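Hey, quick one: can you model this chain's 3D structure?
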Amino acid sequence: MQKTKRLSILICSVMICLLSCFAFVGCGESDANKIRLNEVTRSIFYAPLYVALNMGFFEDEGLEVTIETATGSDASMTALLSGSADIILAGPETVIYSSTSKDHPIVFGQLTQKDGSFIVSREQLSEEFNLQMLKGKTIIGGRAGGLPAMTLEYVIKNAGLSIGENLAAGQVNLRTDVAFNNIASEFQTSGNEFCTLFEPNATTLENEGKGYVVSAVGKVSGEIPYTCFATKSSYLENNAEQAEKFLKAVKNGYQYIIENSSATVAKALSSTFVGMSQAELEIAIEQYISIDAWSDDMIMSQQSFEKLLDIINSTQGTSYAPEFEELIDNSIAEKLAA
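Sure thing. Here's the predicted structure for all 338 residues.
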């Protein structure tokens, strides 16, 4: 009787162990296909990502993607390095800043290839905007050290203008003391003549009669690896299949945008931007299409990477010189482009 009881306990124990192992393996496989993405902000500038999410392209690849919105690139990078995010969508400058971290972040796909901010004027202009109109004026450019502010400073200086607070002497007062998410409200209350905003904020402000979109920074800055998908080196090594599926879904989101009308794309984005009308969404989409904002192959070139380093070093007085191959891994994007 005692032997039978022991045997029964042994059999039950073995079965429990086996079931636990199966459950563990199952959970491991399931967890590997769950991707926690942290984005630097919520903007139509990242439309291919939201189209992929809303149209089920991630699900088609067997992935379950959740998105958390941060309040800046530094917050996104903190999420990645702390382990609360698997992948981040942020400016590649944060990857450069974190290049000495243990298990350092690496870029594996480029989403945007132009500066996505638009110059907004407080007053309606009587002629076409040019950068010389910033002489003796103040423009809110975002947070110091962030790519939007650095790119704006770069193009202002390249236009032969001087940055400073001596407005009477024709200097441009470039404000970099405003958090990214607070630019629109600060612009409305400060009385400053210009600011830069991403969509949908630029279109929303214009529709409210509180500003006028007069130009796109991306038109004068040229191609820059502006926003990219990055992850830890270890994650890319251990989850290459998931990273490839993720990038493929986003690329399908891009294809959907360029193959459909702005009205159709707007409908695909409507659940992500519930505060915007169909007309506002269409305008924002067309704005980004007009400046060729998105990378069609998601590959970051070494030339554009070096331009980014030039922008960072020339505006910040730094001397960053990381090796391209150490921080950029184009293997997945190149495979998808083949």
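One thing worth noting: The chain has two domains: 33-114+224-337, 118-221.
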